Recover the amino acids of this structure.
């Protein structure tokens, strides 16, 4: 058994288990922590697919920024009332089950009947190269230089704006 | 693609303004005299950008692999944005002190929004259009709510942000559909294949969603809901910038997106859409403005109807209409910045003295201000010999040439309605006794803005030929 398959099994197992744990825990904070574990193991799966950039962004944006947002919301909201939503309202429960089955059926159909692997194969070599950080960096600094620089100014303006609106001291 | 230095030389206005933004931020941080330096630095930078842009009108180049155009139409637009920004900054120096938002960041954000507009007018790639639009809009959201102690400004900022985000949603969805069907972001390539793509319903949906998104930004009728509250709630200097620069930037993108329509390479399939938007905007804006007592709110509705007049040009879809729209936009920028400049001078510290009654008897209090206000109102109404007349005239002529005489007639009819509420301001200033007792504190810089705008309107009204010739030479 080579290393790749071993790592894939580990990451896949961790992500599946942590996903189940996320939705079954009673305490929201523990759910959130399992979600972080899920994000990290997904990042590992992306790395195995040679999508380094997406793996890094997954950790920085999802496991970093978005999780902080989640935790803030959990702390600010009264989570005790949350658990009553399901017990009070049966319809939501049925609806949730329906959505879950629907999405699962969609994915299963794609994987087992549409054979997505065959579509990707012809340009496998190029598609592997596309996801590397070097390649994305080169594209950003040559072909997409202008949009990249505008995005920089956009973030600068948004940062200044947030500071002015939230923190500016009045005389 | 390799970057070469000649391309960098051609985007010097962008580089200068971008560097200026960063330097202004540092001055605001470290200098105790930033109050005195920043406004003048901003004005100097923008004047440099304006002069540089107008000098390179003759050139016509696509840079960075076809993403950004310099020279030609975008030069004229960049000139317009820079001059508008400089006039607004000049008028804002004393006004924002009175308004309680004398922050250095104000000028930094004004510069950033102008940079965003310049990228919009130069963009030949939808990605650049979108990023420029967001840069401009985010600066506006913040500028509207820059004084967080004012409830009205907070409300306006929130409304503008939510509806602006809604419009952005339309644009992004449109971009996704257009990119998915055309498989390119380059506007030029999309337009070359337009006739084969136009049969594709997904492509047309995407294109119309793009137009709808920009109709929000130009404040055309069914997408105008944010305009009155946002224009009234935000500080008057910012309203002046938003109502002129923002509208001109959105129109500059529409002129590029529909470029092949104007040269008759593709059929104007959007004519009914634009004609409908134009008729509704003109009539709605003119009729509702009659009922307004607050001058800022009145000008907000008048801005909706002016968007309608310019949309007539898009419906006409020939080269004369491009010239007409661009001429109209130049004149509109000066009319509106001037009118808002006077409102900024009269306005009290607590958002008061913006209603019509405050203008009663202004003639006795300050004849100069009253004279210029009368001038701007007549120009907005489109009476000859002021420049506002020619703005409308060329757009109507373009419509008649495209056999849309009925649209021109509706435009004239709407102008006649609008004369009523513009003249009412003059009647209040000259023929009514003063009701509200206050002293007009003339700010010298504010007056300078007003005088420059007023003189330009008279000059362009008496001699429209030079500006018109310049625009026409660029369009053809």
């Amino acid at each position: 058994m080579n290393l790749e398959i071993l790592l894939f099994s580990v990451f896949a197992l961790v992500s599946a288990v942590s996903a189940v744990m996320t939705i079954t825990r009673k305490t929201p904070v523990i759910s959130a922590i399992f979600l972080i574990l899920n994000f990290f193991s997904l990042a590992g799966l992306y790395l195995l697919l040679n999508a380094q950039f997406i793996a890094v962004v997954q950790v920085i944006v999802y496991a970093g920024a978005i999780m902080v947002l989640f935790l803030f919301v959990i702390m600010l909201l009264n989570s005790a009332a949350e658990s009553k939503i399901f017990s009070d309202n049966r319809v939501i429960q049925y609806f949730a089950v329906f959505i879950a089955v629907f999405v699962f059926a969609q994915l299963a159909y794609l994987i087992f009947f549409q054979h997505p692997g065959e579509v990707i194969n012809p340009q496998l070599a190029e598609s592997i190269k596309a996801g590397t950080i070097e390649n994305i960096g080169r594209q950003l600094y040559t072909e997409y230089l202008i949009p990249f620089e505008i995005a920089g100014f956009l973030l600068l303006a948004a940062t200044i704006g947030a500071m002015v609106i939230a923190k500016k001291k009045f005389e | 693609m390799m970057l070469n230095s000649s391309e960098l030389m051609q985007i010097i206005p962008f580089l200068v303004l971008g560097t200026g933004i960063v330097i202004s931020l540092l001055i605001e941080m470290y200098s105790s005299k930033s109050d005195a330096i920043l406004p003048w630095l901003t004005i100097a930078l923008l004047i440099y950008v304006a002069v540089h842009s107008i000098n390179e009108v003759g050139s016509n180049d696509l840079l960075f692999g076809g993403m950004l155009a310099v020279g030609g139409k975008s030069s004229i637009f960049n000139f317009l944005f820079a001059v508008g920004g400089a006039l607004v900054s000049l008028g804002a120096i004393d006004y924002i002190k009175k308004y309680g938002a004398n922050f250095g960041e104000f000028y930094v954000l004004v510069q950033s929004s102008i940079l965003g507009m310049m990228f919009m007018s130069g963009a030949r790639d939808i990605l650049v259009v979108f990023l420029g639009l967001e840069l401009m809009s985010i600066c506006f959201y913040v500028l509207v709510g820059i004084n967080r102690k004012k409830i009205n400004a907070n409300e306006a900022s929130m409304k503008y942000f939510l509806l602006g985000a809604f419009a952005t949603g339309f644009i992004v969805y449109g971009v996704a559909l257009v990119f998915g069907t055309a498989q390119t972001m380059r506007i030029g390539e999309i337009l070359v294949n337009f006739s084969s793509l136009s049969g594709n319903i997904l492509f047309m949906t995407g294109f119309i969603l793009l137009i709808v998104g920009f109709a929000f930004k130009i404040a055309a009728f069914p997408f105008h809901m944010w305009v009155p509250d946002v224009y009234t709630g935000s500080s008057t200097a910012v309203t002046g910038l938003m109502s002129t620069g923002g509208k001109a930037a959105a129109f500059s993108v529409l002129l590029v997106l529909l470029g092949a329509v104007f040269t008759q390479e593709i059929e104007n399939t959007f004519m009914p859409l634009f004609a409908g938007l134009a008729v509704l905007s003109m009539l709605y804006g003119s009729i509702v403005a009659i009922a307004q007592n607050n001058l800022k709110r009145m000008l907000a509705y008048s801005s909706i109807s002016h968007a309608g007049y310019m949309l007539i040009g898009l419906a006409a879809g020939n080269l004369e209409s491009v010239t007409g729209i661009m001429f109209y936009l130049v004149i509109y920028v000066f009319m509106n910045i001037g009118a808002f400049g006077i409102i900024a001078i009269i306005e009290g510290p607590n958002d008061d003295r913006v209603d019509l009654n405050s203008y009663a008897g202004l003639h006795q209090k300050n004849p100069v201000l009253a004279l210029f206000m009368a001038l701007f109102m007549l120009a907005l109404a489109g009476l000859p010999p002021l420049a506002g007349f020619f703005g409308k005239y060329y757009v109507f002529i373009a419509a008649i040439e495209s056999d849309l005489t009925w649209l021109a007639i509706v435009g004239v009819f709407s102008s006649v309605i609008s004369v009523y509420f513009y003249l009412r301001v003059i009647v209040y200033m000259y023929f009514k006794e003063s009701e509200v007792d206050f002293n007009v504190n003339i700010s010298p810089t504010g007056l300078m803005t007003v005088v420059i705008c007023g003189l330009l309107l008279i000059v362009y009204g008496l001699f429209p030929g030079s500006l018109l010739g310049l625009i026409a030479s660029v369009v053809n």
